[in-house]
């Protein structure tokens, strides 16, 4: 045997660079049919696996937005727009979608009302761990578990430049998609007093 230069092996003396037609190395017709049948079975098996995976994903996430999820979304849609105010960490935790139908989270010191995204940020959503919490560290480090949460105010001072840039990018995305409702207060910081005019003006700017 020899390598014909394109990675295929040919039999010495073969005129077509492979196993010659009708040569001693040609598989019988029954074997060829078996190979074709095997490929078809493999394709059917792969399709079945793909459908099974899709069904499991539907069971995991699709059913979560079933009657209960639909009721929560309907309730969220009926909530009036939240007036501007500032929040301590303790006050923010009340708005986790379970104790209170409204869902808030903080990013880079800003608090956003993400209630309309309850299928993502609600108690059963993929990002539900951030509901009522400061999500900055989790978003910066792509961590979706309790290691990303702090029970005390997190100044993010240990994050590197790339992670801080990620936090700022997330903040901009939330500003574009959700209502900004106030600041996350540092320990000992007093809340601001917002006038109705300021509140209306900023909401109009967001729209």
From TrEMBL:
Q: Does the keyword Transmembrane helix apply?
A: yes
Among Pfam families, the record links this protein to: Cyt-b5 (PF00173)
Chain segments carrying region Disordered: 1-25, 186-207
Query: Which residue range or ranges hold the Cytochrome b5 heme-binding domain?
Result: 87-185
Keywords, alphabetical = Membrane, Transmembrane, Transmembrane helix
Q: Where is the composition biased (Basic and acidic residues)?
A: 1-13
Feature: compositional bias, Acidic residues? 190-199
Where are the bilayer-spanning segments? 31-55
Which stretches are tagged as biased composition: Gly residues? Answer: 15-25
One GO cellular component this record assigns the protein to is:
membrane
Give the family per the record: Belongs to the cytochrome b5 family. MAPR subfamily.
What name does the UniProt record give this protein?
Answer: PGRC2 protein
